[in-house]
Amino acid sequence: MTKQRDIMRAGLIGYGIQRSLTPAMHMQEGLAHGLDYSYELIDLNERKLGPDDLENLIVEAEERGFCGLNITYPCKQKILPLLTDVSDDARKLGAVNTVVLRDGKRIGHNTDWWGFAQGLTRQLPDADLTSVIQIGAGGAGAATAFAVLEMGAKALAISDIDQTKSAELASLMAGLFPEARVEPVRELSTSVERATGLVHATPMGMDKHPGIPLPADLLRPSLWVAEIVYFPLDTALLQAARRRGCRVANGGGMAVFQAVGAFSLFTGLEPDVSRMLGHFEMLTRGGGEVRLQSA
Prior knowledge:
By secondary structure, this protein is of the alpha/beta class. 37% of the residues lie in helices and 19% in strands. It folds into two domains: 7-111 and 256-287, 3-Layer(aba) Sandwich (Rossmann fold); 113-252, NAD(P)-binding Rossmann-like Domain (Rossmann fold, 3-Layer(aba) Sandwich), CATH 3.40.50. The chain has helices spanning 22-32, 54-63, 88-93, 112-123, 139-150, 163-176, 188-194, 236-243, 252-267, 273-284; strands spanning 7-14, 36-43, 66-71, 85-86, 98-102, 105-109, 132-135, 155-159, 181-184, 197-200, 224-227, 248-249. The radius of gyration is 18 Å and the shape is globular. Keywords: Amino-acid biosynthesis, Aromatic amino acid biosynthesis, Oxidoreductase. Pfam families: Shikimate_dh_N.
Protein backbone atom coordinates (compact mmCIF):
# COMPACT_ATOMS: atom_id res chain seq x y z
CA MET A 1 0.00 0.00 0.00
CA THR A 2 1.50 3.34 -1.03
CA LYS A 3 1.43 6.50 1.05
CA GLN A 4 -1.87 8.30 0.71
CA ARG A 5 -4.03 10.98 2.28
CA ASP A 6 -7.24 8.92 2.13
CA ILE A 7 -8.33 8.12 5.67
CA MET A 8 -7.59 4.61 6.90
CA ARG A 9 -9.84 3.28 9.67
CA ALA A 10 -9.17 0.53 12.19
CA GLY A 11 -10.45 -0.27 15.65
CA LEU A 12 -10.31 -2.39 18.79
CA ILE A 13 -13.27 -4.41 20.09
CA GLY A 14 -13.21 -5.42 23.75
CA TYR A 15 -14.56 -4.86 27.23
CA GLY A 16 -13.31 -2.05 29.50
CA ILE A 17 -10.63 -0.83 27.07
CA GLN A 18 -10.74 2.93 27.64
CA ARG A 19 -7.12 3.04 28.83
CA SER A 20 -5.80 1.04 25.88
CA LEU A 21 -2.71 2.56 24.24
CA THR A 22 -3.23 0.63 21.00
CA PRO A 23 -4.99 3.53 19.22
CA ALA A 24 -2.17 5.96 20.01
CA MET A 25 0.52 3.49 18.89
CA HIS A 26 -1.22 2.78 15.59
CA MET A 27 -2.04 6.39 14.77
CA GLN A 28 1.44 7.66 15.66
CA GLU A 29 3.05 5.04 13.44
CA GLY A 30 0.54 5.79 10.69
CA LEU A 31 1.42 9.47 10.88
CA ALA A 32 5.12 8.59 10.52
CA HIS A 33 4.24 6.80 7.27
CA GLY A 34 2.23 9.72 5.93
CA LEU A 35 -1.17 8.11 6.48
CA ASP A 36 -4.39 9.64 7.71
CA TYR A 37 -4.98 6.83 10.16
CA SER A 38 -8.00 6.72 12.48
CA TYR A 39 -8.08 4.00 15.15
CA GLU A 40 -11.19 3.74 17.33
CA LEU A 41 -12.09 2.02 20.59
CA ILE A 42 -15.25 -0.08 20.35
CA ASP A 43 -15.81 -0.69 24.05
CA LEU A 44 -18.51 -3.26 24.82
CA ASN A 45 -18.80 -1.84 28.32
CA GLU A 46 -19.31 1.73 27.13
CA ARG A 47 -21.81 0.69 24.47
CA LYS A 48 -23.70 -1.72 26.76
CA LEU A 49 -23.01 -4.62 24.39
CA GLY A 50 -21.67 -8.15 24.70
CA PRO A 51 -19.87 -10.81 22.61
CA ASP A 52 -23.19 -11.74 21.00
CA ASP A 53 -23.12 -8.34 19.29
CA LEU A 54 -19.85 -9.10 17.47
CA GLU A 55 -21.48 -9.81 14.12
CA ASN A 56 -23.25 -6.45 14.11
CA LEU A 57 -20.06 -4.64 15.11
CA ILE A 58 -18.09 -6.24 12.28
CA VAL A 59 -20.78 -5.38 9.76
CA GLU A 60 -20.76 -1.80 11.07
CA ALA A 61 -16.96 -1.64 10.63
CA GLU A 62 -17.20 -3.03 7.10
CA GLU A 63 -19.89 -0.53 6.15
CA ARG A 64 -17.65 2.29 7.43
CA GLY A 65 -14.72 1.06 5.36
CA PHE A 66 -12.45 -0.22 8.14
CA CYS A 67 -9.27 -1.95 7.00
CA GLY A 68 -9.10 -4.06 10.14
CA LEU A 69 -10.05 -4.73 13.74
CA ASN A 70 -8.12 -5.82 16.77
CA ILE A 71 -9.99 -8.15 19.10
CA THR A 72 -9.47 -8.50 22.84
CA TYR A 73 -11.23 -9.90 25.92
CA PRO A 74 -13.79 -11.46 25.84
CA CYS A 75 -14.03 -11.98 22.07
CA LYS A 76 -10.80 -13.66 20.86
CA GLN A 77 -12.42 -17.06 20.53
CA LYS A 78 -16.00 -15.99 19.87
CA ILE A 79 -14.88 -14.12 16.73
CA LEU A 80 -13.81 -17.32 14.94
CA PRO A 81 -17.20 -18.40 13.47
CA LEU A 82 -17.65 -14.93 11.98
CA LEU A 83 -14.49 -15.03 9.83
CA THR A 84 -14.03 -16.16 6.24
CA ASP A 85 -10.48 -17.44 6.83
CA VAL A 86 -7.80 -17.62 9.53
CA SER A 87 -4.01 -17.82 9.47
CA ASP A 88 -2.27 -21.09 10.35
CA ASP A 89 -1.15 -19.94 13.81
CA ALA A 90 -4.58 -18.53 14.67
CA ARG A 91 -6.15 -21.81 13.57
CA LYS A 92 -3.78 -23.80 15.76
CA LEU A 93 -4.43 -21.52 18.73
CA GLY A 94 -8.17 -21.26 18.26
CA ALA A 95 -7.96 -17.54 19.03
CA VAL A 96 -7.80 -14.36 16.93
CA ASN A 97 -6.70 -10.88 17.98
CA THR A 98 -6.38 -9.25 14.54
CA VAL A 99 -8.91 -9.27 11.69
CA VAL A 100 -8.05 -7.87 8.27
CA LEU A 101 -11.10 -6.57 6.39
CA ARG A 102 -10.38 -6.54 2.67
CA ASP A 103 -12.30 -7.27 -0.55
CA GLY A 104 -15.33 -8.47 1.39
CA LYS A 105 -13.27 -10.98 3.38
CA ARG A 106 -12.59 -11.22 7.11
CA ILE A 107 -9.20 -12.84 7.68
CA GLY A 108 -8.19 -13.64 11.26
CA HIS A 109 -4.62 -13.60 12.58
CA ASN A 110 -2.94 -13.97 15.96
CA THR A 111 -0.13 -11.50 16.68
CA ASP A 112 -0.47 -12.01 20.45
CA TRP A 113 1.77 -15.04 20.81
CA TRP A 114 4.67 -13.43 18.95
CA GLY A 115 4.10 -10.21 20.88
CA PHE A 116 4.26 -12.02 24.22
CA ALA A 117 7.40 -13.93 23.21
CA GLN A 118 9.14 -10.73 22.12
CA GLY A 119 8.20 -8.92 25.34
CA LEU A 120 9.35 -11.78 27.58
CA THR A 121 12.63 -12.18 25.68
CA ARG A 122 13.42 -8.46 25.96
CA GLN A 123 12.52 -8.08 29.62
CA LEU A 124 13.72 -11.46 30.97
CA PRO A 125 16.21 -12.74 28.38
CA ASP A 126 17.50 -15.48 30.69
CA ALA A 127 14.12 -16.65 32.01
CA ASP A 128 14.30 -20.30 33.05
CA LEU A 129 11.70 -22.17 30.98
CA THR A 130 12.25 -25.54 32.62
CA SER A 131 8.79 -25.57 34.21
CA VAL A 132 6.16 -22.85 33.67
CA ILE A 133 2.76 -22.45 35.28
CA GLN A 134 0.15 -20.37 33.50
CA ILE A 135 -3.01 -18.93 35.02
CA GLY A 136 -5.68 -18.41 32.36
CA ALA A 137 -6.90 -20.64 29.53
CA GLY A 138 -8.88 -18.19 27.40
CA GLY A 139 -7.93 -16.55 24.11
CA ALA A 140 -4.91 -14.72 25.52
CA GLY A 141 -3.91 -17.85 27.42
CA ALA A 142 -3.80 -19.85 24.21
CA ALA A 143 -1.35 -17.30 22.79
CA THR A 144 0.94 -17.17 25.84
CA ALA A 145 0.96 -20.97 26.18
CA PHE A 146 1.92 -21.31 22.51
CA ALA A 147 4.60 -18.66 22.98
CA VAL A 148 6.40 -20.22 25.96
CA LEU A 149 6.29 -23.66 24.35
CA GLU A 150 7.57 -22.24 21.07
CA MET A 151 10.37 -20.61 23.10
CA GLY A 152 11.36 -24.02 24.45
CA ALA A 153 9.48 -24.59 27.71
CA LYS A 154 9.96 -28.19 28.79
CA ALA A 155 6.87 -28.31 30.99
CA LEU A 156 3.72 -26.18 31.17
CA ALA A 157 0.93 -26.47 33.74
CA ILE A 158 -2.28 -24.56 32.94
CA SER A 159 -4.74 -23.32 35.55
CA ASP A 160 -8.16 -21.76 35.07
CA ILE A 161 -11.25 -21.32 37.23
CA ASP A 162 -13.02 -23.29 34.49
CA GLN A 163 -11.25 -26.65 34.75
CA THR A 164 -12.73 -27.79 31.45
CA LYS A 165 -11.01 -24.89 29.66
CA SER A 166 -7.64 -25.61 31.26
CA ALA A 167 -7.92 -29.29 30.31
CA GLU A 168 -8.88 -28.42 26.73
CA LEU A 169 -6.02 -25.95 26.30
CA ALA A 170 -3.52 -28.38 27.83
CA SER A 171 -4.69 -31.08 25.42
CA LEU A 172 -4.41 -28.70 22.46
CA MET A 173 -0.88 -27.60 23.38
CA ALA A 174 0.24 -31.15 24.12
CA GLY A 175 -0.78 -32.07 20.58
CA LEU A 176 1.11 -29.12 19.09
CA PHE A 177 4.23 -29.65 21.24
CA PRO A 178 4.53 -33.41 21.89
CA GLU A 179 8.10 -33.03 23.16
CA ALA A 180 6.94 -30.97 26.16
CA ARG A 181 4.94 -32.04 29.22
CA VAL A 182 1.70 -30.03 29.17
CA GLU A 183 -1.04 -30.69 31.71
CA PRO A 184 -3.86 -28.94 33.56
CA VAL A 185 -3.20 -27.82 37.12
CA ARG A 186 -4.75 -30.01 39.75
CA GLU A 187 -3.47 -28.21 42.83
CA LEU A 188 -2.29 -24.62 42.40
CA SER A 189 0.16 -24.37 45.30
CA THR A 190 1.97 -27.56 44.28
CA SER A 191 2.29 -26.44 40.66
CA VAL A 192 3.61 -23.00 41.68
CA GLU A 193 6.13 -24.61 44.03
CA ARG A 194 7.51 -26.75 41.18
CA ALA A 195 7.60 -23.92 38.63
CA THR A 196 10.51 -21.78 37.51
CA GLY A 197 8.19 -19.16 35.99
CA LEU A 198 4.60 -17.91 36.17
CA VAL A 199 2.58 -16.47 33.28
CA HIS A 200 -0.60 -14.57 34.10
CA ALA A 201 -3.07 -14.58 31.20
CA THR A 202 -6.43 -13.43 32.59
CA PRO A 203 -8.01 -9.95 32.75
CA MET A 204 -7.55 -9.81 36.53
CA GLY A 205 -5.58 -6.71 37.41
CA MET A 206 -7.18 -4.55 34.71
CA ASP A 207 -9.12 -1.46 35.79
CA LYS A 208 -12.43 -3.27 35.37
CA HIS A 209 -11.13 -6.50 36.96
CA PRO A 210 -9.03 -5.55 40.04
CA GLY A 211 -7.26 -8.19 42.10
CA ILE A 212 -4.47 -10.74 42.09
CA PRO A 213 -4.90 -14.20 40.50
CA LEU A 214 -3.26 -16.30 43.23
CA PRO A 215 -2.33 -16.04 46.93
CA ALA A 216 0.67 -13.73 47.16
CA ASP A 217 2.41 -16.00 49.67
CA LEU A 218 2.90 -18.58 46.90
CA LEU A 219 5.37 -16.23 45.18
CA ARG A 220 9.07 -16.68 45.91
CA PRO A 221 12.34 -15.06 44.72
CA SER A 222 13.33 -17.93 42.38
CA LEU A 223 10.09 -17.56 40.39
CA TRP A 224 9.89 -15.12 37.48
CA VAL A 225 6.47 -13.60 36.80
CA ALA A 226 5.17 -12.41 33.41
CA GLU A 227 1.98 -10.38 32.97
CA ILE A 228 -0.24 -9.70 29.96
CA VAL A 229 -2.23 -6.83 31.50
CA TYR A 230 -0.77 -3.40 30.74
CA PHE A 231 -3.41 -0.93 31.88
CA PRO A 232 -2.35 -0.41 34.53
CA LEU A 233 1.20 -1.34 33.57
CA ASP A 234 2.21 -2.08 37.16
CA THR A 235 -0.48 -4.53 38.23
CA ALA A 236 -1.18 -5.76 41.74
CA LEU A 237 0.42 -9.09 40.76
CA LEU A 238 3.66 -7.45 39.64
CA GLN A 239 3.80 -5.33 42.79
CA ALA A 240 3.30 -8.39 44.99
CA ALA A 241 5.88 -10.37 42.99
CA ARG A 242 8.53 -7.67 43.31
CA ARG A 243 7.94 -7.40 47.06
CA ARG A 244 8.76 -11.11 47.28
CA GLY A 245 11.92 -10.79 45.22
CA CYS A 246 10.63 -12.11 41.88
CA ARG A 247 11.93 -10.82 38.57
CA VAL A 248 9.00 -9.58 36.52
CA ALA A 249 7.96 -8.81 32.94
CA ASN A 250 5.06 -6.43 32.46
CA GLY A 251 2.40 -6.63 29.75
CA GLY A 252 3.89 -3.78 27.73
CA GLY A 253 5.93 -6.07 25.51
CA MET A 254 2.93 -8.03 24.34
CA ALA A 255 0.99 -4.79 23.85
CA VAL A 256 3.65 -3.22 21.62
CA PHE A 257 4.61 -6.22 19.53
CA GLN A 258 1.07 -7.39 18.86
CA ALA A 259 0.47 -3.83 17.62
CA VAL A 260 3.58 -4.03 15.42
CA GLY A 261 2.18 -7.15 13.77
CA ALA A 262 -1.34 -5.78 13.43
CA PHE A 263 -0.17 -2.49 11.91
CA SER A 264 1.72 -4.38 9.22
CA LEU A 265 -1.31 -6.55 8.43
CA PHE A 266 -3.73 -3.61 8.32
CA THR A 267 -1.60 -1.26 6.21
CA GLY A 268 0.78 -3.47 4.25
CA LEU A 269 3.61 -1.26 5.54
CA GLU A 270 6.62 -2.22 7.66
CA PRO A 271 6.40 -0.51 11.06
CA ASP A 272 9.47 0.87 12.81
CA VAL A 273 9.76 -1.29 15.95
CA SER A 274 12.09 1.08 17.80
CA ARG A 275 9.77 4.00 17.09
CA MET A 276 6.72 2.10 18.36
CA LEU A 277 8.58 0.99 21.49
CA GLY A 278 9.66 4.56 22.11
CA HIS A 279 6.15 5.89 21.70
CA PHE A 280 4.75 3.30 24.11
CA GLU A 281 7.38 4.19 26.69
CA MET A 282 6.55 7.88 26.32
CA LEU A 283 2.85 7.17 26.83
CA THR A 284 3.46 5.06 29.94
CA ARG A 285 6.26 7.07 31.51
CA GLY A 286 3.95 8.39 34.19
CA GLY A 287 2.62 4.95 35.09
CA GLY A 288 5.68 2.81 35.62
CA GLU A 289 8.98 1.87 34.02
CA VAL A 290 8.75 -0.18 30.86
CA ARG A 291 12.29 -1.18 29.82
CA LEU A 292 11.37 -2.93 26.58
CA GLN A 293 14.27 -1.79 24.42
CA SER A 294 17.05 -4.28 23.73
CA ALA A 295 19.99 -3.95 26.08
